[in-house]
Amino acid sequence: IFDMYSQGVLTSRDAWAYNSGRDALAGNMRRMIETYETERQRYARASAGLQKGDWPDIEKIVDTDAKKISWSANLKTDLLRNKPYTFEDADIVRTMYRPFHAQWGYFNRRFNERVYQQPRLFPTQRHENLVICAAGSGANKAFSAFITANVPDYELVSKGQGFPLYWYEKVDENEDRPQGEMFEDRPTPDADGYIRRDAISDWALGEYRRRYEDDSITKEDIFWYVYGILHSPEYKDRFAADLKKMVPRIPFAADFRAFSNAGRELGQWHLNYETVEPYPLEEETGRLVMEDADYRVHKMVFGKGSGGKDKSVIVYNPHLTLKGIPLEAYDYVVNGKSALEWVMERYAVSIHKASQIKNDPNDWSDDPHYIVDLIKRVTRVSVETVHIVSGLPPLNEME
Fold first, then answer.
1. Sign of CA dihedral 221, 223, 226, 232
2. How far apart are CA 295 and CA 30, in angstroms?
3. CA distances (Å), 111 to each of 33, 70, 188, 354, in order?
């Protein structure tokens, strides 16, 4: 179905390459790259005049202090090759790190251990795309899928493969073309020199139109059909064993439009989770007048009931408790846990042990109510997702 797909970005240094605060991320990466440059020059001096086989052991020369730099195999290779690097502010992009958890990321081939095909999906911040991320081979969690309009992390969903709506081809206008192609129609590159290509194959479009005897089907309809199918409880249950071993295979369900429309609707909720109408949860405050600082979060926990945890209640911080969360919201599970529990886990202040880098979710937005409203919005998204998924028809595959 897809001409192009890719795993998410694997940085091998998440604490450095991701952060909720853009300024914090820039500061961390500047510091690390400055350290790399210092060590590159140190090693160049130590190996000057020597044959390659006589170069000193890199581990005995460079500074390995985890508070200054995170070494990886690729970065050490670059140092041996004496490759200089500078910090690039344009490489800071919005990413989707985990479900409903966006972060700033340093999207750079040299400081991400593996970028796979992501630079062809998101070549610049100006190039828009949608990517369905589905759990990949070897995933350690039950199969699930999640859509994003941002560069996805490798573990957005476990070992995820990303299936895009588009991919972008870089065109060199000065490149010599074969004579046979000289007079062929060729799309005009954009201002950055890219041509947008459909990731849904022409074969898939023809096959879907033939199978369903419907020439009005578009490639975008097929994209959303895939997202709908990947949310089908029947599909995930029947093909669970196969989904652990291979890229998902998509059946021709009897009702194409039902799955395509459901996928599109799910996509709208999942993509717009930061702006949908918040679910009306009750705010129980500990102060008569709440100041902006009273909405900062450190670590959220569930309320306590007579039988243990009370998931209808989230203790946001000592000054604020959210009540009235419908328990059906927890039925929406993606990448191994409910969407709400992802928000609770990821929107907590953390300090990375080795580097001592702090990641403070309060830095993500200038709106002091952002995280409180996010809980309400993800509650809404979860409830709506459960309703849509429960209304999906049986597959009833066509022959």
1. negative
2. 31
3. 9, 9, 32, 18
Residue 273 φ then ψ, to 5° = -60, -20
Residues in the chain: 399
Q: Which residue has the tokens 């071993």?
A: 245
Distance of alpha carbon 125 from alpha carbon 146, whole angstroms = 21
Strands 92-98 and 151-152: parallel
Strand 6-7 and strand 161-164: the pairing is: antiparallel
- The amino acid present at 300, given as its one-letter code, is M
User: Structure tokens of 248?
Assistant: 């998902």
For residue 128, which of 152, 149, 153 has the smallest C-alpha distance? 149
Interhelix angle 370-390/256-271, rounded to 10 degrees, is 170
Buried b / exposed e along 242-259 (16+ C-beta atoms within 10 A) = ebeeeebebebbebbeeb
Walk along the chain (399 residues) in steps of 10 and give the mean pLDDT of each run: 96 97 98 98 95 92 96 94 96 98 96 96 96 91 96 95 97 60 70 96 98 98 98 97 92 98 98 98 92 96 91 97 98 97 98 98 97 98 98 94
Cα–Cα distance list, 280 to 194, 210, 365, 372 (Å): 44, 46, 21, 12
Query: What are φ and ψ of residue 224, in 5° steps?
Result: -75, -30
pTM for the predicted model, two decimal places: 0.94
